[in-house]
Amino acid sequence: MLEMIDYIPQGDGALIVRCFGSGPAVELPERIGALAVTALADHCFAKEPSVRIDRSLVRRSVRRGGVFEEGGSPAGGEEIPAAAGATLREIRLPSSLRAVGDYAFYGCSSLERILFPSGLVRLGGGAFVDCNHIAEVVFEDYDPGDGSGSSLLGVPPCLREVLAEISNEVEAVLAGPDGSDVLRLVFPGYVEESTENTPARIIEVRYLGTGYNYRQCFRGRMLDLQAYDDGKLFYLAGVNEFESTTVHLAMDRLMTPVMLSLEAGQRYLDWMRAQPEAAADYCLSRGDTGLLLLLKDRSFFTGEVTDVFLKKAREKGNAPAASFLMELGRGQAGAGSGRKYSFD
């Protein structure tokens, strides 16, 4: 929990310079006294603070009665550890935030999840250098508005920039004002490889993995979901990525089918049907039968696929899922498939 914040007043807003507290999760306040928290300084959560900040401008805010008040003495001689670097696993930024400074999260090597406000308009360069474990980025209070075409969806201004800064596999979540998921998308990881063509004096760049291709599915501030769901791109993902990644990608689209065409939806279902063990591992790892019901409603299960899922459910000791699948299998057997089922 945060206990102190160093900040610089900027008009009606506050620039956060450094945070202090214990624990792996940080939630920044919306306000420091009368000032809205509007920006993060360079190196705000990095292991080492920025040397470019004029320390004479910095003021300190201490949590009192659950709120941060304006005032306090200039920074220096902290007894409380900085909430920074490898100690952090999750950061939640306030809805008032509009800008993130350069290298703001540099060296947060254990960071796994960040919650951004959808109104964020500036992401500094190198924000996620040496942040190789970010698995989920969430944009809260997202309002899709009106797209400019059948497959173009308006997205938060900084979504594209955030994904461009993260090269490992990451799931992007657009959450509505009520907290529900409007859209979940997986962006696989990729590696940039540069080689020199010496005679021609040209540096050739190759991208290994489909993650770079998926990150190109933007048209300015719009996300082209038709390009994201493109069959050729998904085929490349199926060939080049781990099955667990491709199943995750397909299930996210089926769970949040914004602008998902019937053809693309069927393509995702067909691919998972051909990899039933990977599909079963993913669905059963969620611990409930919600995904199984979704797949049942989409006519995903064949007798053979049901057998694989049931076997996996028993291996994992998932009794609710096993019960659901047994009932499903009985219904399939009773539908005249000619197959015999044993549910011992």
How would you summarize what this structure contains?
By secondary structure, this protein is an alpha/beta fold. 28% of the residues lie in helices and 26% in strands.
Q: Would you identify the regions where 5 or more consecutive residues have pLDDT less than 50?
A: 340-344
Number of strands: 19
Give the distance, in angstroms, between the N- and C-terminal Cα atoms: 51 Å
Strand content range: 25-35%
Instruction: Give the helix proportion (percent range).
Output: 25-40%
Gross morphology is globular
Rg (C-alpha, Å): 24 Å
* Largest sheet: number of strands, sense, barrel closure: 8 strands, mixed
Order of helices and strands: EEEEEEEEEEEEEHEEEEHEEHHHHHHHH
What does this protein look like?
- The chain is an alpha/beta fold and 344 residues long.
- It is built from ten helices and 19 strands.
- It has helices at 159-165, 211-214, 225-228, 231-240, 243-255, 262-274, 276-284, 290-297, 303-315, 319-334, and strands at 2-10, 13-21, 25-27, 31-32, 35-40, 59-64, 67-68, 90-92, 99-100, 113-117, 122-123, 136-140, 152-154, 170-175, 181-187, 191-197, 202-208, 218-219, 222-224.
- α5 (243-255) runs antiparallel to α6, α7 (276-284) packs across α9 and α9 (303-315) packs antiparallel against α10.
- Residues 340-344 have low confidence and may be disordered.
Notable traits:
disordered C terminus, alpha/beta, 10 helices, eight-stranded mixed beta sheet, single chain
